[in-house]
Automatic annotation (TrEMBL):
InterPro entries: PAPS/APS_Rdtase, PAPS_reduct_dom, Rossmann-like_a/b/a_fold, UCP030820. The active site is at residue 238. Binds 1 [4Fe-4S] cluster per subunit. It catalyses: [thioredoxin]-disulfide + sulfite + AMP + 2 H(+) = adenosine 5'-phosphosulfate + [thioredoxin]-dithiol. This is Adenosine 5'-phosphosulfate reductase. [4Fe-4S] cluster binds at residues 130-131, 212, 215. Belongs to the PAPS reductase family. CysH subfamily. It is found in: Cytoplasm. GO terms for molecular function: phosphoadenylyl-sulfate reductase (thioredoxin) activity. Its cofactor is [4Fe-4S] cluster. Keywords: Cytoplasm, Iron, Iron-sulfur, Metal-binding, Oxidoreductase.
Length: 424
């Protein structure tokens, strides 16, 4: 009981809490799944724990255990908008059959979908970002309300989960409970049979691990049950889970995953790098190199999809002056820290042509440059340099208040040296 109150009131990392989790795993290591769930709900985190369920192929086991312990436990279903219709029907079936009275569907934010996935096909090019928008982001404010939450993860599912314990301490010092950690495939099947639990409607059709429809496929005989998730991609997790070995990234820290810094934080980037296989009339969410745009101008202007423009040193942005408003983002390339031509391009775009959409810097971007880039109108940055990422996260960029070259009309001379300007 003391552990629960301490954990929930103070989120700062503490070695004693980590030792407490080790102690919990030692105490309940041999306990069955129902016992682990009951201890978590009644003794460790009374009134302070929730369940997150995908209502997938094996979810019925965890939900049946929850119904035995407390059918009023809050259960959250991530309604990503990409589920099979059969999954949505299964949710309603289990609610009724198991007597679950506190199931809530949580949805992705409409403004995130409008910005990053307006056509609903982000999963095709960037499944990590799709999972982040549709799962991780909606779940975060829910998990913040509880001191712990229950998952249905099992050791046998992936190599990364092979050391999964019953209890974990998350990166923000909540407790994650895994009652089924030691279950294997045979245990799951036996439990379902013993309690006459209904299978997911797609299970008999070869879907052994079921997530969102676009990223789930049939599993062949003898294949790993999770082989049908994100088939062909180096991806095994959606991002809402990570284990104590650190093999799976923390779901609460998007800065570790994303490189686009905008509006004070690292965010998922809907844009991809242009490649020669893209078609001018069909491309979307790519930064088109300026020469490619000029060569295929009519086709790009007729293209109804969102596009960006890539301006590299030596390109004449003046040649696209009449069409700049067609682009929702313009990327200015800085091939080297010492190459300052991009600053002039930024000033042309913002001061002369009044470009007001996203203006991003790409390339060799270091923390010393960012205050200067912002001064020229750049408002987004693609960051790959680790110390610069850390400086942005910690808000410790260098301060520069006096400049040799004035920008705009608001800067005034400093003292008797008119070539020095103070930023407004």
């Amino acid at each position: 009981m003391a552990m629960a109150s301490t954990l929930h009131s103070d989120r700062q990392p503490d070695k004693l809490r980590s030792l407490g989790i080790v102690a919990l795993n030692g105490m309940f290591d041999e306990m069955d799944a129902v016992g682990v769930m009951r201890q978590a709900v009644a003794e460790i985190l009374p009134g302070d724990v929730a369940i997150v369920s995908s209502f997938g192929a094996d979810s019925v086991v965890l939900l049946h255990i929850a119904a035995q312990v407390d059918p009023s436990l809050p259960i959250y279903f991530l309604e990503t908008g990409k589920h099979f219709p059969e999954t949505l029907a299964y949710v309603e079936q289990l609610k009724k059959q198991l007597g679950l009275i506190n199931v809530t569907a949580i949805h992705p934010a409409p403004h995130d979908l409008a910005r990053f996935d307006p056509d609903g096909d982000l999963w095709e090019t960037d499944p990590d970002s799709c999972c982040h928008i549709r799962k991780t982001e909606p779940l975060e404010p829910i998990t913040e309300q509880f001191g712990g939450w229950v998952t249905g993860r099992k050791r046998f599912q992936t190599k990364e989960r092979g050391v999964l314990p019953h209890f974990e301490l998350t990166s923000d010092d909540r407790i994650k409970i895994n009652p089924l950690a030691y279950f294997n495939d045979a245990d799951v099947a036996a439990y379902k049979a013993e309690h006459d639990l209904p299978e997911h409607p797609l299970y008999s059709h070869g879907y052994k691990s079921i997530g969102c429809a676009p990223c789930t496929s049939v599993v062949a005989e003898g294949e790993d049950p999770r082989a049908g998730r994100w088939r062909g991609l180096n991806k095994k997790e959606c991002g809402i889970h990570y284990d104590f070995s650190g093999a799976i990234a923390s779901p609460m820290n998007a800065a570790d995953k994303y490189s686009l810094f905008k509006d004070g934080t690292f965010v998922a980037d809907p844009f991809r790098v242009w490649d020669e296989t893209m078609v001018a009339g069909e491309a979307r969410y790519a930064h088109v190199p300026l020469p490619v745009f000029l060569e295929n101008r009519e086709a790009f202007l007729a293209n109804p999809h969102p596009l960006g423009l890539l301006v590299s040193p030596g390109d004449r942005v003046e040649d696209a002056e009449a069409d700049l408003g067609r682009f929702v983002s313009i990327a200015i390339k800085f091939p080297a820290f010492t190459d300052g031509r991009g600053y002039s391009t930024a000033r042309l775009l913002t001061e002369r042509y009044q470009y007001a959409n996203e203006l991003r810097a790409v390339g060799d971007i270091l923390q010393d440059q960012i205050p200067l880039m912002r001064r020229c109108g750049i408002n987004a940055f693609v960051i790959t340099h680790k110390p610069t990422r850390e400086a942005l996260i910690e808000n410790r960029l260098p301060e520069v208040n006096i400049f040799y070259q004035p920008v705009g009309t608001s800067e005034v001379p400093v003292g008797t040296r008119p070539y020095l300007r103070r930023a407004s």
